[in-house]
Amino acid sequence: MEFDKPQIEYGHLWPLLVVLGVACLGVLVEAFLPRERRRLTQTILAMLGLLAALGGAIWVGLDLPKLGDGVARGDLMMEGTLVVDGPTVFLWGLVLVFAIGGVLLFSERRLEGGVSAFAGQAAALPGTEAERQASTRGLEQTEVFPLLMFAVGGMMLFPAANDLLTMFVALEVLSLPLYLLSGLARRRRLLSQEAALKYFMLGAFSSGFFLYGVALVYGFAGSMRFADINEAVRNDTENQTLLLVGMGMLAVGLLFKVGAVPFHNWTPDVYQGAPTAVTGFMSACTKIAAFGALLRLFYVAFGSDRWSWQPMMWVIAILTMLVGSVLAIVQTDVKRMLAYSSVAHTGFILTGVLGVQAATDLADHEVTSLQAVLFYLTTYGFAMVGAFGVVTMVRDSGGESATFARWAGLGRRAPVIAGVFAFFLLSMAGIPLTAGFVGKWAVFTVALSAGAWPVVLVAILASVISVFFYVRLIWLMFFSEEPTEGEVAAVHTPSLATLVTVAVGAAGTLVLGVVPGPVLDLAAHAGEFIR
Amino acid sequence: MLNMSEGGHIPVVDPTGTDGISSLLWLVIALPLLGAAVLLLAGRATDKWGHWLGTLMSAGSFVVSLLLFVDLLGRDEGDRQVSQHLWEWFSVGGLEVGFDLLYDPLAALFLLLITGVGTLIHVYSIGYMEHDPRRRRFFAYLNLFVAAMLMLILSENYLGLFLGWEGVGLASYLLIGFWQHKPSAAAAAKKAFVMNRVGDMGLSLAIALMFVTFGTTSFSGVSAAASGASENTLTALGLLLLLGACGKSAQVPLQGWLLDAMEGPTPVSALIHAATMVTAGVYLIVRSNFIFELASTAQTVVVIVAVVTLLWGAIIGCAKDDIKKALAGSTMSQIGYMMLGAGLGAAGYAFAIFHLLTHGFFKANMFLGAGSVMHGMNDDVDMRRYGAVRHAMPVTFLTFAMGYLAIIGFPGFSGFWSKDKIIESALADSWLVGGLALLGAGITGFYMTRLMLLTFFTEKRWKDDVHPHESPAVMTVPLIVLAALSVLAGVLLLGDWITDFLAPVVGEVAHHDPPLPALAITALVTLVVAVGVAAAWFLVGKREVPITPPQDVSFATRAARNDLYGDAINEGLVIGPGRHAVHGVTLADRRAVDGVFTGTAAGIGALGTVLRRAQNGFVRSYALSLLGGVLLVLLALLAVNLV
Asked: A177: cis peptide before it, omega within 30°?
């Protein structure tokens, strides 16, 4: 038996390799650098790595070869296990931008009085002498930076994977660091650890389904490659059940990651328990990467069989929007409310997934669903990272304070920050002149053009419901009376890093609402998935 | 059938570019927007002169509107549509949604109304809000409202209109709840917001449907392509637009918020909840005439909604003791008349707009007058504690009287001409509709006379510590101007000027022979109104008015006092079930996973038991939910494909 040396296209893959390389370097820093110098080194290293990768992604994006005379651009890499095409590069860009926001939030120290928001020593049990010592000595767990970088690496690999096994590996690479990060909160450690454990167990459970789906689809198609699966789906009408069950299992794994109902239960607990910086990073980037993978799997591998999976997606989308927005109404904690709101957003994005896929099926004024989903993810990311950035600043004597009662009258105590937060909420609600409006408009119209009007009807109903709870929070901040007893939260001044993140989030939300054209064009320019 | 448009020509929106004076169009919106931005962003620094800036911006906008109007009059009739392209909002493939403005006769009239009445109300507010520490903020919101309302009117496509629509909703929300220290004000603001969302849902669905059907949302694109769409689509579009209009214009069944909205400062009630914003629904329907003309079913529904509302509002107006709420009931009823005109198609559009303008004048006049009375009565709104105020406030009394004579349709006053025309068109359409509109006119005569008597006539009932006094000039001058307009606005009908002027937008008024000679109808209307006035005179004016409302009243009075149980109906039909649904879903999410899945499928139940033994705490039920989800996904896949 003879082995061919696999060809690796460094020219197109280096942004991904930079991120993973920096992650490994970060581990070495932890091992060899003295404790007091790690913090700064890690922050700078992660920042430089992400910026370099972002620059690289842009450079690669400009350099993508055109395929035929269609709109698709890109090429297969690593003997066909990876694919770098327009959508991949767009998603890389998004993940990297929001990961930079994540690093900035991670590096925040001023709010906790000179230490980070992460546990001083994660191994010390809550309430023990060891923990007390860790906090009096001002220890910090700087491993969060390499963990973040590994997660980002996985997130970049996820939408670029061109076969089932690579996709599974990417899924695990992005998930494992997130499980750890979720459990590292400095305050309310038990809650954080419980969330991490839940996230891990349920994640492992869903990965199991994904893996089973991989096996079944392999059994059906005789190949892991998406292009081959697509061939098999076109030609083979014999083993429908095998294919459908496999498809369903794969869908479960991905729907879990995006937080669709009924796979959403982990979201509120994890969003609430995890350190807020992690929540901000994870809510934006995980969803972006997972939707990229979901789109690629269902458009490329199962695209010619869309009539068999679309009804299932209809049901999931409808359930997700309704359950997400209805449950958000009864929340009394800002982070939990944002978590349910993110569930509802998953439903809206799924509505976009139901749209028409190929530009050739459309009249020239219509938007493809890929374009709509990419745009929606962009708007969603800015609002989420920004909103969680604000949540880190709102504090009382016990640290961050996310209970509604404590937020009452915040608008009078800190009008600017509360105003910015209200702006994020309005964008999430889809009020015109914010990014969210254009995003919703895009996904609703693509779904309508594909004839999914019942879903759009539910989507509009759900957005009406959702306006209610967003506005309720705005009302609480600006119009309600301050409680006469009990503590209220105040906005503490953070370091420049957090301020920059929030400001960029707000600017992105505003610009995408007023002149969305360039980014919509960019999404259109990303073209289609290639096989 | 109510549809009267067969064979009629439906105008298409086909504007030319701007030049000369008309290229100033963008300034109309930009000025108040700038005012709002400065006042909100510059903060306390502008406290001293903020109200002047706000007023100046609104006045500037009025001057530009006036210039534009003169320019428009100088053009040929066929040339009276201009559009201005500001910038591209979205541009995707061939779809372009621009920030385009459209200026035509319809927009011209609205511009003058909004900026003109708006400026007067700004001036009035300088006096009315003098002692309010947050006066600057109030003016910022007013400017914001004016800008949003102008955006609504001037946009050349439905998306821009929607932007303005949401903008006026937001401004209205902020202004109703302006006195946030009053819990009732905050609750009213929230109610208005939520009820409006139902309407907005209709409008956004209509826009989405339009986009899918025509591939565009611009007025020119839709009006050109509308005749190619199927009747069902057009009917659906019409009904959805009507739902939007009902929310904004407080028409049945979305009328409930308007009465509560009176919690806002009185200038707000005058500007937003009488003269301008609440008429946006009428504008929407008249503007979308190219859809309604082709959807006769939708037109019929508009007429039904209109007739129900005009009676509903009038009946509520009869029983309210709160002067502002009585006026709000009247607003609802008068908008019903406008809607009726709009529902009658080409025969009524111009008259709907005519009544909208005259109503804008006389109702703003009366609201400001009511504010002036309250100003002098220590902010008491209960008419049972007024009486004989005319001696203390002669200017307010006289100007209010002009508005009163206009609204009841006293011959020669503006309301006489505009209401008469709508009733005449309705009678030409059907005896029933016309008859009910006539009845509404009679009730209007009754409740307005009652209001007038309770406030300005009868014996004085106020307490000794109240010292009614005339308001300062900054408040009475706007009243005088509005009173003059209430009297004189009827001249717009001279030589059918307004119908000819609007014809390029809404089509020629189709001439139908009314069942009676026009003069006879006019006499009939006047007679019915006189009966209403007389009834009020004998029932209210001739008797002693108890200070506490009597409780042993008939069922009808009690129902009218309770807004005809509008809130109870909403509670029973919408809010109650909604609350139960939320409760149900919450419950399901917390613990139903076990119940549903173990209860239905034995196999899953067994698996669930295993899982339950293996783990405890919530993760168990989460995992079970995940498993249920797997089954759901598989079932959905298999059921669709293999069955």
From this structure: no
